[in-house]
Amino acid sequence: MSRDINSKFWDEKLETQPREELEKKQLEDLKEIVKFAYDNAPYYKRSFDEAGVKPEDIKTLKDLEKFPFINKKTQRDTQGVGSFLGELAAVPEEDVVFISTSSGSTGVPTMSPFTKKDFDEFQDTESRWFWQVGMRPNDRYVHALNFSLYVGGPDVIGAQNLGALCIWGGTLPSERLLFILKTYQPTIIWTSPSYAWQLGEKALKAGIDPKKDLNIKKIIVAGELGGSIDATRKAIEDLWGAEVYDFYGLSDIFGACAAHCEYHDGLHIAENHILVETVDIHTGEVLEPGQTGELVFTTLRKHARPLIRFKTGDIGRIDTTKCKCGRTHGRIHILGRKDDMFIVSAVNVFPSDIEAVIREHKGITGEYLIRIFEKDFTSKYAVEIEKNADNPKDDETIAAEVSAALKARIGVKPARVVVHPDGGLNTRSEHKSKRVIDERNIDYSI
Q: Are 318 and 297 in contact (CB under 8 A)?
């Protein structure tokens, strides 16, 4: 299918279809996938029977609420049971052409299998996101993501299918990646928000001005919340002279499931593939669109391992109103991970809110570390930061300023703010940065 390179849509009919039509197709696919899962995946047959529900109970999208949730623990407990692919799989191993695995950051790594049709539709969605952020066949693209079992690795195929010249960079050392950026002059790169920032800093220290010596026009980021935090995104944009777009994905489903458009007002999610619910984090009660809770996804077209009511562990909301860009698929707004959120003085605190304050504050590097601890039988938090080498203010003044800014933004101030010199924090990483250390004896597994 030939495409007009001047069109901002990869598939205009799909991306702009009226919600009534979109939801009608979602219902058709939901009925099919729930029946397929029940008939072919041992876990779903057992759990649906135990819950007293059957595929025929789905008459409307709302009927999905009758069905039980699954989560990461479900995946871990059923993986390898009965077969290599486990009890959640709905196809035989010979139908699977690709598997990725999770990082295992919340437990045992879990695999995500794909049939050829699953994989092809996954890559078509990636092409759609790349096109949405402005990638065209005349772009040169560096895919600076891990290729080792990581579900984001194959996303580069979506860029190739679009027609861009693709450089499979992977997780190269910074010096080598900067060599590629300077020598080949690519226009688009994809990495993590923290690494995009650190790579820009390293370029400057190496005598390379990202704005003048490189040709990066767009930076895609994923894997951390920074791309959806305005202050972090602006800091990266100012450093590179490029526009930053956030992508969101889950190893449990496929690479990027949602992406920014040019308005950066939430991330459009592929609602033709994923049915989104938002539920109360304590009761599991389904909330209305626009309300904040835990995001629950149901895959509508993935047959290798359907996910019916998968609790993602991500806290956010979905906006189903039509975007200014013309797209009608809903936009998700992510606040953070359920297991990263902590409560101080009855206030829900997300690391993303702390990051927003740190990135906006003048005179500090933007690097930070959060420590959560218990004192007098209650949770407290401390923040460690770095001050710029040319900042003339004393550490005590800087700590007081940051503490006040955090109190104003979050509603509760930190127990302390520790100021380090530039480079004093060990938070710079080639990949995701570890920024939260929970010193409490609390089990957050989900």
A: no
Chain Cα centroid distance, residue 124: 18
Cross-sheet strand order for the sheet of 243-249: 165-167, 140-143, 188-191, 218-221, 243-249, 256-259, 267-269, 331-337, 310-319, 293-299, 274-279
Helix ranges (DSSP H) in 8-134: 12-15, 19-40, 42-51, 72-78, 116-132
Q: Give the span between the Cα atoms of 192 and 28, in whole angstroms.
A: 36
Q: What is the pLDDT of residue 343?
A: 79
**pLDDT number for residue 107:** 53
Pair 193, 187: CB distance under 8 Å: no
134 and 174: one domain? Answer: yes
352 and 426 housed in the same domain: yes
Q: How many domains does the chain have?
A: 2
Last residue of a domain, one of 305, 337, 369: 337
Q: Could you give the C-alpha distances from 177 to 47, 74, 191, 323, 430, in angstroms and in order? A: 48, 39, 11, 36, 11
Which of the 8 DSSP states describes residue 286? B
| CA distance from start to end of the chain | 43
pLDDT along the chain (446 residues), means of 10: 86 97 98 98 98 98 98 91 95 96 66 96 97 98 90 94 96 93 97 90 95 97 87 93 96 93 97 98 94 97 97 95 98 87 78 87 91 82 93 93 91 92 78 77 46
Q: Determine contact, residues 296/69, Cβ cutoff 8 Å.
A: yes
User: Residue 216 CA to chain centroid, in angstroms?
Assistant: 22
Q: Tell me the Ramachandran region of residue 160: left when phi exceeds 0, alpha when psi lies from -120 to 50, beta otherwise.
A: alpha
